[in-house]
Amino acid sequence: MTAVARVRRRRYAGLGDQPVELRFVDMLLIIIATLVFVAVMLSVTSAFSAAPPAAAGPRIATTAPPTSLVGRDYRLTLAVLGGAGPIQWRLVSGSLPTGLRLAADGTVEGKPLRRADTVATVEVTDAGGRTDRRVLSFGSRRVAPDSSLPPVPPPPLRIPAPVSLLYAVKGREYRHAFSPDTGTAPFQWELRGKLPAGLAFGADGMLTGRPKHAGSSRFDMSITDAGGAKAQQSVVLVVEKGPKTRADRIWDWVKRIVRYAGLAVFAWLILFGFGGERIPGLLELLSTVAGGRRATRK
User: Fold this and answer.
1) Domain ranges, ordered by start, for the chain
2) Where are the extended beta strands (E) located within 116-228?
3) Percent of the chain with pLDDT over 70
């Protein structure tokens, strides 16, 4: 018997009563446990490093602007679904009735000077550069004298969609204007539910602020027009995580280094043992099993 064999025999004297097959099964269990641990760590790492889904591009929701009256104040806020704020509007082609103008926030306001029917193409652009266009028909009518024609009933109040999906980014300025498709101005909006922290809602239908936390929330909006007609709209607001700061990126690198260092230490302990000779490593066990088999054959 060689000197190496005698040292191994003394080191594992407590294991001498166990058959070689049993010790080999123990090593297989150690290998399986190691592989399972590595697979779980990789799954957790992938889950935490997954990027948030990209927000949908903007889509103009207003389809039929209410008719304006000559000589009377008119105000309409064009509605948009999706997109990441801030939202910018512009008139691409066509024209509005004389006296009306389109602001960058999507508000059409002014006082029509004459009766007219016009067609205008409007475009909306979000912070990511995504755009959407829609052709809208605008009309202005004169107020008929009391004795000439019977009064024309106002159009029924209608909202763009019963459920709206909006997107915002944590920590970034957000602005969204709610607006009906039809109805008699002025409109009065009311919030039912709780907004994400950092956002505020006004009676004119403007949702503004800077979201403080990422996540999704659901709330309801009710609108009442000048004629007393009412409608309701459900809103789902998704607040996405903003871009990482330099401190966040440094912290991510620190966590990654610690994670891989822990995996390296764990693999070292599995392969080379715990506490020196007290608990042998996988390589030492394999070497012992191989030596035992060679001694049995002799």
Assistant:
1) 3-49+246-297, 59-240
2) 116-125, 131-141, 163-169, 174-177, 188-192, 199-201, 206-209, 215-224
3) 67
Q: Output the CA torsion 102→99→187→135 (10° steps).
A: -50
Residue 151 has pLDDT above 70, yes or no: no
Antiparallel, parallel or unpaired: β 230-240 and 215-224: antiparallel
Q: Tell which residue, 170, 167, 247, 165, has the closest CA to residue 213.
A: 170
Can you tell me the distance from the alpha carbon of 84 to that of 165, in angstroms, rounded to the nearest whole number? 12
* Among 72, 64, 120, CA closest to 97: 120
Residue (of 138, 163, 115, 166) closest to 63 by Cα position: 138
Identify the pLDDT of residue 20.
Answer: 46
Q: What is the fold of 59-240?
A: Immunoglobulin-like (2.60.40)
pLDDT at 256 over 90: no
Query: What whole-number distance in Å separates Cα of residue 191 and Cα of residue 194?
Result: 8
Decide: residue 278, CB within 10 A, 0-12 exposed, 13-18 middle, 19+ buried: exposed
**What count of other Cβ atoms lies within 10 Å of the Cβ of residue 36?**
10
Other beta carbons less than 10 A from residue 81's beta carbon:
20
**165: helix, strand or coil:** strand
Q: In angstroms, rounded to a whole number, what is the distance separating the alpha carbons of residues 175 and 207? A: 6
Mean pLDDT of 121-147: 83
pTM for the model:
0.41
Q: Give CA–CA dist 138/236, Å, rounded.
A: 30
More confident residue, 75 or 269: 75
Helix, strand or coil, per DSSP, at residue 160: coil
Over residues 103-118, the pLDDT tens digits come to: 988 899 998 988 888 9
Per-residue pLDDT band for 261 (boundaries 50, 70, 90) equals: confident
